[in-house]
Amino acid sequence: MPGENLTRDEARERAALLSVDGYEVALDLRSAVGDGGAEPRTFRSVTTIRFRCSEPGASSFADLIAPGVTSVVLNGKDLDPGEVFDGSRIALEDLAAENELTVDAQCAYSRTGEGMHRFVDPEDGEVYLYTQYEPADARRVYANFEQPDLKAPYRFEVRAPEGWTVWSNGAGELTDGVWRFAETKPISTYITCVVAGPYHYVTDHYERVLEDGTKLEIPLGAMCRKGLAPHFDAEDVFLVTKQGLDFFHDHFDYPYPFGKYDQAFVPEYNLGAMENPGLVTFREEYIFRGKVTQASYEARANVILHEMAHMWFGDLVTMEWWDDLWLKESFADFMGTFANVGATRFTDAWITFANRRKAWAYRADQLPSTHPITADIRDLQDAKLNFDGITYAKGASVLKQLVAYVGQDAFLEGARRYFKRNAYGNTRLGDLLSVLAETSGRDMTVWARSWLQTAGVNSLTPQVLLDTEGGRIAELAVLQEAPEAYPELRPHRVAVGLYRRTPEGALERYARVETDVEGPRTVVAELAGAQAPELVLVNDDDLTYCKVRFDETSLATLREHLGALTDPLARALCWSALWNLTRDALLPARDFVGLVLRFAGRESDIGVLQMLHAWANSALVHYAAPGWRATGERLVAEGALRELRAAGPGSEQQLAWARFFAAVASAEADLALLKDLLDGTETVEGLTVDQELRWAFLEPLAAHGAADEAVLAAELARDDTASGKRHQVRCLAARPSAAVKAQAWAQVVESDALSNALVEATIAGFGLPSQRELTAPYAEKYFAAIERVWRERSIQIGMDVVRGLYPAHQDRPETLQATDTWLAAHADAAPALRRLVLEARDDLARALRAQECDEVAAGR
């Protein structure tokens, strides 16, 4: 990987020297189906680049990662590939003012989801291809200048096996056996795209009359593997797509600029989705093979709208370098939820954002690798790791705060001016701030410095002083704190809500004030004289990005009456705050688990309920004192089964509790019930045990030795699909056997035979918390292997291995010491690798602190 890196300084130097007029890329993918022998490894890629050089006679380089190069021709001169190509770069000497470079290469099919990924469907043997490039894998498919600020138009042509269809960014047609695609607008390398194969393809159409009276027509398409076609609800995908196009046209005043709009759901995808203009790619798990809750449909709609927002934020106007990745990802993350609420049936999507999405941000912002939203990205490895909770969810949260700060109208007018001034160009932070200053009339520099250029998360705590009788507020203040390492106290626009119980027992808001919080203590004068509250919520309506804390009265109220809180967003915010208290070792894990068992059954928002299940499981696995885990597991399994039986037949809550019960089942009776549900000897009224739920039940059975290899093979025969294979691989690796763990380790660490999806599945089955003793010997092996893995494997697989196999379940001080020893001995290791290890260490240290807090609680 180090030889494939590109630094920011190199990119800036090249951008100052070169400008690109256009690409012509010809790919021959006919080898993809093979000839019945060995698996095909390469395809032919011929690229012609026309570009200018501001300093004739200067030298530069093009990017290409390929097993072989047949020829390199620069300005009509044949260059020796052996001399100019080093495996990742092509040296370009003595450039002219105007240049033409043609590179004929043999590029490799990928099994890691990077570059040109090749997938063989085990169900029918069909081959499917797609590309994925961000941040810098287009060079695995064609020669280019791989940096976002060297935009250019592209013309693609593709030869494919007979009977295949091929798609790219522009509209295409098949003539004389070649798929030829319309030239694109100027775009960056990382958002070019090719999808090819016997995909199931559905079409639709979008029309809109623009303000000038012209008609905008956008052909729509959606595709998936043929094996998933029976499950493909394309009509819902198109519904959300059209709603999103209406919403963004209403708010952006800039017509969709890229012609058609295809959406491809592809196998073994590493990301949620990718915003290639005209051809968005998604992970195929967004096609649901079984019954799922509305939270899954809401999440899919959010991703569809997130990627659509990128057509403007990121594709039309692109950051100059990955430092300003937030200029596309933070905006798309915010706009995904903004549009979901404003245009679709998912009008409560801000609840999901507050409860689930921001949890990702809060975790990332407390890691040792935290960074400002506008990050310092030195190279491509830095860029790969910065697709994180800060760039996405914190950035989106900060934009939500910005909307509250400047007003929605000013914010959207700023966006409209930003698009018109910078269309098809590249920008930096200042370009956006300048238009927001114009439209809002506010000086954006102080806000930007506090929110975009500093790291860390503030905590806001209410301080309530009552009058002498205790019935009224004498003074209510908001206290702001910051971590010692990141002491910035930021300006917050917040809503402070006061809550009391009604005579009927409901906990409801009776007063709300919106105010600016600045500095360590802010008095909310408007609330003086208000009736004394039982609960103060300092970030009501979730306007800002902060960790919410409670005064003693509020926390006591939540312990007894959280389920009585009637407003679903306020309830979600309180749950999120309680989870942060647990992670910060301020609330014992057993107390949090107790709150979930007591109140989660009354949770109406299905997304919040599923998040509570995940948090309760994490509390047991990571934060509960080891001596209490067995008790906690029994209590949670009993509670989950009780709620499963009490839930409405066929309801979303019933399905969620069934999945949670399977996730926590370990007792013999619980495993026996799962077996009975699988073979139909016992039923729960309204619960359909479909194929996806069958696999969810089989995993704990496999993990506890109650489903052997033969049982799993029989289940795969029942579900002989790509999805079934991933489930089976995970279950096989979950079996409680030393030999099984050794085999799984070898398949992932010592071999590159598995595809990215099967690596992920094997890792998931290998490291189960219930098998701490079985995996204990691999802690030492992990530290011995990771530097080699990072050096030899692709960055995606390297990230999967380093994150997924860290011995987090060996949660004792000795594991921290082993981590520190490795870090001290590998000070010169790749910074991205060290970052991953530091993050894992921090999670473990946090878990040990929480366990100590929980242990203290046992002696109360």
In short:
By secondary structure, the chain is an alpha+beta fold.
Structural category:
alpha+beta
* Quaternary state of the chains: single chain
Q: Report the mean per-residue pLDDT as an integer.
A: 96
Share in β-strands: 15-25%
- How far is it from the N-terminal to the C-terminal residue, by CA? 52 Å
| Helix content bin | 40-55%
Number of helices: 28
Radius of gyration: 28 Å
Tell me the total number of β-strands: 28
Q: Name the shape in a single word.
A: globular
Largest sheet: 12 strands, mixed
Q: Low-confidence parts, pLDDT < 50 over ≥5 residues?
A: none
Describe this protein with a few key phrases.
single chain; 860 residues; alpha+beta; twelve-stranded mixed β-sheet; five-stranded mixed β-sheet; 28 helices
Can you describe what's shown?
The two termini are 52 Å apart. It is globular and about 90 Å long. Helix content is 43%, strand content 20%. The chain is α+β, with helices and mostly antiparallel strands. A hairpin with a 5-residue loop joins strand 15 and strand 16 (215-224). The model has no long low-confidence stretch (mean pLDDT 96). Strands 1, 2, 4, 5, 7, 8, 9, 10, 11, 12, 13 and 14 form a 12-stranded mixed beta sheet that branches. It has a 5-stranded mixed beta sheet with strand order 15-16-17-19-18, covered by helices on one side. A 4-stranded mixed beta sheet has the order 26-23-22-28.
